[in-house]
Design goal:
Blueprint lengths: L1 H11 L4 H8 L4 E5 L15 E3 L5 E5 L7 H14 L9 E4 L5 E6 L5 H11 L6 H10 L3 E7 L5 E10 L2 E8 L8 H15 L3 E8 L3 H8 L5 E5 L3 E7 L13 E3 L11
Parallel strand pairs: 8-9
Antiparallel strand pairs: 1-3, 2-3, 4-5, 5-6, 6-7, 7-8, 9-11, 10-11
Helix pairs in contact: 1-3, 2-3, 4-5, 6-7
């Protein structure tokens, strides 16, 4: 029964594949090689090497013991499900304070081009964004959400790159959508996602003196710690328990990387 739930989980969202494999192949090291085949094929049995839906290769290795036939076949089925063509994830409409409406939906592999365009519009920090975007859009240690305007154009992207026990946040907002409350909305989305993942902290990097990003981070209703060296600034949030009954154990997330140009989101 657990395997059936895992299969449905991956069939609905292929970016969940890495975590499903980690769950299925308990104790195994699952490695994604985005730009090639990975180790020498002779070092990894054929049954433990799979094509990743985003490109490159996934491999599995476990030193303690070998893999059973059921594990190998189960992993192959999960990979096949993740590679099936599917519709884009469903979204929900949100009304911003100024009256503009956006649709938020989970980001997926097919959004790679849209996220790349938003990154170019927002200006680049000195980060390996090409690799980072793969982490976010494939679910490999990350997750993201895309904001769409009423005409269907992508106008913003927010994501978390897990770095246990916290996460680094990425925020990309098209310049025409700054100062509309979208930054605040996306920061709250990231904090909620971080809490659901049980993370302890969320952090973000931006430009020194960026008051707009500071305001967006503070909108989560949590204390913001700032480390500003006059050139760049890191904003950090420690997550307290989610509000409302039942009372839960303290969870945290770490404010992350905000990418933007000009004054901010």
């Amino acid at each position: 029964m657990r395997y059936v739930r895992r299969a449905w989980w991956v069939a609905g969202r292929p970016e969940r594949l890495p975590r499903a494999l980690i769950d299925l192949l308990a104790g195994a090291d699952i490695v994604w090689h985005p730009h090639g085949l990975g180790p020498d094929p002779a070092a990894v049995p054929a049954g433990l090497r799979w094509p990743h839906p985003a490109g490159g290769t996934l491999t599995a290795a476990r030193a303690a013991r070998g893999f059973g036939v059921g594990e190998v076949v189960g992993a192959q089925i999960l990979v096949a499900l993740a590679r099936l063509p599917r519709r884009l994830p469903q979204g929900r409409r949100v009304l911003l304070p100024g009256g503009h409406v956006v649709t938020l939906r989970p980001a997926c592999l097919r959004d790679r081009r849209a996220v790349t365009v938003l990154d170019a519009l927002c200006g680049r920090l000195q980060q390996p964004w090409g690799l980072e975007s793969q982490w976010l859009l494939t679910g490999w240690e990350g997750q993201g959400v895309l904001a769409m305007a009423a005409d269907g154009r992508p106008v913003a992207f927010a994501g978390l790159v897990r770095d246990e026990p916290g996460a680094e946040a990425v925020l990309l907002i098209a310049p025409a959508w700054w100062e509309r409350g979208l930054g605040e909305l996306l920061v709250r989305e990231l904090v909620t996602a971080a809490r659901q993942e049980g993370l302890k902290e969320v952090w973000t990097h931006t430009f020194s003196g960026d008051a707009v990003t500071v305001r967006a981070m503070r909108s989560a209703g949590l204390p913001v710690a700032a480390d500003d060296d006059g050139i760049s600034m890191t904003l950090s949030l420690s997550l307290d328990p989610a509000p409302g009954p039942p009372r839960q154990s303290a969870e945290s997330s770490r404010p992350s990387v905000v990418r933007q140009g000009g004054t901010g989101p």
